[in-house]
Prior knowledge:
single chain, 488 residues, 66% helix
Amino acid sequence: MTTCPEPPQELRREITARQLSMIAIGGAIGTGLFLASGSAIAQAGPGGALLGYAIMGIAVYCMMQSLGEMATQLPIRGSFEAYAERFVDPSLGFAAGWNYWLSWTITLAAELVAGALIVKFWFPHANTTFWAMGFFTILLGLNWMTVKAYAEAEYWFSGIKVITVIVFLAVGLLLVFGGLGGDAVGFQNWTLQDSATGRSAPFVGGFIGVLSVFMVAGFSFQGTEGVGLAAAETADPVKNVPKAIRTVFWRILLFYIGAMFIVGTLIGFNNPNLLNGDETHVAFSPFTMVFSHVPHIGYYAASLMNAVILTAVLSCGNSAFYVATRMLHAMACTGKAPKQFTKLNSRGVPVAALLATGLVGACAFFSNYIGDQKIYALLYNASSLSGFLVWIGIAICHLRFRRSWVAQGRSVNDLLFKSNAYPYGTWLSLILFVAVLFGANAGVFRAASFSWFDFISSYLMIPVVLLLYIIHKLVYRTQIVPLKDCKF
């Protein structure tokens, strides 16, 4: 195995407590909420979207408790990729690491496409490739600097997102009840019927519709686990990681559940400007659409909101660049990736890993030739699948972590941070993630005409990860790590 470079080429612990907390918040607020949530409303209606996000929020909370327990005890390079190698099987660590890297490079591409879609609010005929390249250059520059620069940029990006959601919730409630003048919108969209399709709210699409929301919600929540990776570059992780983990549930409850309620109440599920794959209409952010209803200043309020959402896209892309780069560097340090990716520049940034991540993320440049909404849906679907596979791995690692901890004669009370969701919450999240992984895209089999493109884009990442696991297993003949041999 290749060992990682000795200091001064080690990753630097330069992320402060305030930055880590904001990174945790920012990881839970992204284009999944600001843009893809429109797809959830269109597919499942206000009730289905709210239910899907609530269930997924509970599962993610349980998963984050599991990760928090491991990351506090072992704030090491690679996080869950390293945990999979130590507590389950080195082949699982290999597959988990490459899957996570793929997941975030795909997410980076999705954020670049999302940025171009958001710009179309002002410039409907804008060239997607041109804007994606511009955003790519900005994000590459931010990540080329020190980790401190990344963390500080993410701190301010995340702060803007938090303020945006809070203002959105307040303005949305006032619009529902007529507090800004004009007629109150009320709850008419919760009983809306579409005469053209025969569908009706609040549960459009029934059970399959709710299942489809799980995939959108998974993409929305993806990034919360980035706290585990950031722990390796965090000052005093024993104190700061638990602090960041403990606030996840309340953010999910307030930001996502509250925002989905407002969006579903103010925007009908049959609105053609919701993200639904229809290239004949421009897809707007539901947040922008809500602000367009503000009396007298609707267009200006919507423009301001759209600008803020654009900064959120840059924030998500910034995070995607960071976590994917650090995962590739961590894998190179343990021989799971080419050793060239271990190299750091004088500022402690793994430049080779950064460029490799950017090269794959640049596939967003082709969106103009395929269709903006179509490729965005494809990318967030693929990223969601990869994210669920990561979360499944975290749950499995935690079950093995806790069993091996006890098997080696340690007391649970000696853990630096104890998951309050273990064991039932860990099992609940594991079962739900597996069910969503295979069931959320079941709608492709119900379509009037079966599409191989939709089928492959819906399930491709599953065989890819299995193939990575099997190939590594056959080459290195790895075994399940005995509980008493797990390394703490």
